[in-house]
Amino acid sequence: MLPDFFSYKNGSLSVEDVSLGELADARGTPLFVYSREAFLSGLKALENAFRDTRHLICYSVKAASNLALLKLVADNGMGADIVSGGELHRALKAGIPGGRIVFSGVGKTKKEMSEALDAGIFMFNMESAGEMAALAEVSADKGLVAPAAFRVNPDVDPKTHPYVATGLRESKFGIPLGEALDLFLEAKKLPSLKIIGLDCHIGSQLTDAAPFRDAVTILAGLLSDLKTHGVNIRYLDIGGGLGITYRDEKPPSPEAYAAAVTGIASGFPGLTLILEPGRSVSGNSCVFLTRVLYDKKTPAKNFAIVDGAMNDLIRPSLYGSYHRVATVTEKSGGEIPVTVVGPVCESGDFLAKDRPLPPLEPGELLAFFGAGAYGFSMSSNYNSRPRAAEILVEGSTHKVIRARETYEDLIRGEIPA
Ligand code: LLP
């Protein structure tokens, strides 16, 4: 089964009603192609699942941060979860008001704090005593009061890839649970901070609802303790992390996810939940489209060498991630194991290993699914490869939402000594 809004039409893989074959001919490859409807339906599915609970969806900008996508978030009245001044700039540019932006991350600089205060952001999620002191100082200098929360590390195993598990005891993220109460009480004394929230994010690509429930249960205990000590928390930020199907994973539905967390939160009247979804919104809204340059058979492997590479889609190389691949021209039978690799000079440059695919001719197009989250946003210029273009499809029309980079883009800012 292909993700919603992707299907074969008249023998060609299509995004909504746009043929990827025609798109590749018109716009070149490699290409990231998003379905507007798929992205929106990801946002709306969560909105709907949480409809009976007071909440704000703050889309996690890092997953896919193109202005056109952020504008869809803005137009639907939702907010943003950011981790840098750059993401703040994007979110504001796209029309997401400061008052709907939460600032996450372990290493915010004073400059970034200052910019976010100027933008009147909704909440800073602080992750250490040092950061608390820095934020208090920056906001006092400006004569402002910073709305703040602490991100707490509940030490819950999200059962996901170790690089994206963030709520374990060994992790750099969050305040250890045992230190949280004292730190909240300390923060409450600082006149340039207003403590309004409690936050956690335990990891990404979770395919089971239980760790979410466990984490929120732990936070609920802390909420009660805080209340007893006169700290009134109005916002419970449960982070992101809901997984998607790349291969055969069966992540909880938005409803099952909501059911796991809203019951516990409902014990606190007046509480608003903040969600920071990234992958579950953008992941399956996009394919990465690449063209076969050469087929190369060695005694060990059938390689398809394509024009896309690890600099475009690094997830397979970095995490060993699986992205389903399909030929754009509909074919059946005669499959052989094919390893799809790019032109980058590293053996780690692969997009798929030993996948059953029909023999591939040069010129053939391949689509990699699930490329919308941490695809383009993690791409780089490694090997001086201009970054791919991004396309947004709406029905039978498409827009270039990011032009393919040029060689001049590659050297902008460089100064020959
Ligand atoms: N909130 C915070 C504080 C986060 O650190 C993250 C992701 C999110 C929300 C969004 O999580 P999501 O809903 O997308 O799971 N590059 C990796 C994923 C890194 C996730 C980092 N944090 C990958 O390609 O799998």
What proportion of the residues form beta strands (DSSP E)? Answer: 25-35%
So what's the oligomer here?
single chain
What class do helices, strands and sheet pairing give?
Answer: alpha/beta
Helix content estimate: 25-40%
Work out the number of β strands.
21
> Treating each run of at least 4 consecutive H or I residues as one helix, how many helices?
12
Q: Which CATH first-tier class of the largest domain would you pick?
A: Alpha Beta
CATH architecture of the largest domain: Alpha-Beta Barrel
What is the typical, i.e. mean, pLDDT? 96
Give the distinct bound molecules: ligand LLP
Largest sheet, in brief, is: 9 strands, mixed
- Number of spatially distinct domains: 2
Describe the protein's architecture and organization.
With 417 residues, the protein is α/β, with parallel strands linked by helices. Helices cover 29% and strands 25% of the residues. The strands form 3 sheets. Strands 4, 14, 15, 16, 17, 18, 19, 20 and 21 form a 9-stranded mixed beta sheet that branches. An 8-stranded parallel β-barrel has the order 5-6-7-8-9-11-12-13, surrounded by 6 helices. A 3-stranded antiparallel beta sheet has the order 1-2-3. A hairpin with a 2-residue loop joins strand 1 and strand 2. Helix 2 runs parallel beside helix 9 and helix 5 packs across helix 6. The longest helix has 19 residues, at 210-228. The N and C termini lie far apart (55 Å). The mean pLDDT is 96. The protein binds ligand LLP. The site of ligand LLP has 23 residues, from helix 10 and helix 11.
